[in-house]
Specification:
- This protein is of the alpha+beta class and 339 residues long.
- The protein folds into two domains: 2-90; 109-336, BirA Bifunctional Protein, domain 2.
- Helix content is 42%, strand content 19%.
- The protein has twelve helices and nine strands.
- Strands 1-4-5-9-8-7-6 form a seven-stranded mixed sheet, sandwiched between helices.
- A hairpin with a 2-residue loop joins strand 6 (243-250) and strand 7 (253-262).
- Helix 2 (22-33) runs antiparallel to helix 4 and helix 5 crosses helix 11.
Length: 339
């Protein structure tokens, strides 16, 4: 038995010395000291040893175990030190190199303009409402007094998913959906992305953003519309801003108007920015057509209202004096850092 233990000790010591990695060293530990290891097998065979010899054999086994465990720990410490030295040698950090600069982004010009518009109207008691970008023809056109065959459908160059579903051409469908709910009075703005089959140039894009507003209540008049938009223009472009309403036509409002603001660059005197006119067109508006109210379940004899719509990109272009709409979408950091 003593010779067997001596052979196990010599074989284990040899394999420990040959181990050149921690994984191989662990394999040796398991092979000799594990639950199914050679030294453990000797202990399990003690039942075959004469009772008077068992204490002596147990002592030999423990001595061999202690010797091997010490050798294993010593070799483990040596291999760990070598691995650490190699890692430090391979992963040298040059502390003289410049650090990586963490760039912190900020809001896009469109987002800045949108938050400003929302702030103004929320301050007037309006709520912000959103709706689906993929819309039924019913809400995008019919409930806005644009039936099948109406020329306005051709003017908007709509993207059709199928005969009844479109990519919305304005955010007015959100207004129709809110009116259908019948929770009156209504004071809301509906910002969002809209889609039209336009060629990309300095002032057009097939995907852009609109902000449309709606007020429905008793005794609402055109004077309320004018007062609201005048206050909006002064908050957005400055307290000296003046507004001008020009007669226009929209299928869903009657009467309708285009709204101009005095040029905030020259104060209305005429300059290159306003093309010498002193005025800049910003939005369209009007009193909600009685037929639109009827189709949305609102009695036009009891309730009236007004609506308006403005392009978000147009506000951003004017506010920051940008001359090409495409700059807003190109993600050029040299341009975006200016805001």
């Amino acid at each position: 038995m003593k010779e067997k233990l001596q052979h196990i000790q010599e074989e284990a010591a040899k394999r420990i010395q040959e181990a050149n990695s921690l994984d191989k060293l662990n394999e040796v530990r398991v092979a000799f000291l594990g639950k199914k290891g050679e030294l453990t097998a000797v202990l399990k065979g003690m039942k075959d040893v004469a009772p008077e010899d068992r204490p002596k054999v147990g002592q030999w086994v423990n001595e061999v175990r202690a010797e091997l465990e010490g050798l294993l720990e010593e070799t483990k410490a040596k291999l760990e030190a070598e691995a650490l030295e190699k890692k430090l040698r391979e992963e040298v950090i040059d502390v003289t190199l410049p650090a990586k600069k963490m760039e912190i982004g900020h809001r896009h010009p469109n987002t800045i303009a949108l938050e400003e518009v929302e702030r103004i109207f929320i301050g007037m008691g309006y709520e912000v409402v959103e709706g689906p970008e993929v819309e039924y023809d019913l809400y995008n056109f019919e409930k806005l007094n644009i039936p099948e065959g109406h020329p306005a459908k051709d003017e908007q160059d709509t993207f059709y998913v199928n005969k009844n579903i479109v990519l919305r051409t304005q955010t007015s469908p959100v207004q129709a959906r809110v009116m259908e709910e019948g929770k009156l009075p209504i004071r809301m703005i509906a910002p969002g992305r809209v889609f039209r089959s336009d060629e990309v140039d300095a002032t057009h894009s097939p995907s852009f953003h609109q902000i449309e507003g709606l007020v429905i209540d008793k005794h609402i008049t055109f004077a309320d519309l004018k007062g609201t938009l005048e206050e909006f223009a002064k908050e957005l472009f400055g307290p000296e801003t003046k507004t001008k309403f020009r007669p226009h036509h929209f299928p869903f409002t009657e009467p309708s108007a285009e709204v101009d603001v005095s040029c905030f660059k020259c104060g209305g005197k005429g300059c290159r920015f306003c093309k010498g006119s002193g005025w800049i067109e910003i939005l369209g508006c009007g009193m909600v057509h009685p037929h639109v109210l009827e189709m949305c379940g609102i009695d036009p004899e009891e309730y009236t209202g007004f609506a308006f719509g403005v392009g978000l990109e147009r506000i951003a272009l004017l506010k920051y004096e940008i001359d090409d709409m495409r700059l807003l979408y190109e993600n050029d950091t040299r341009f975006l850092r200016q805001f």
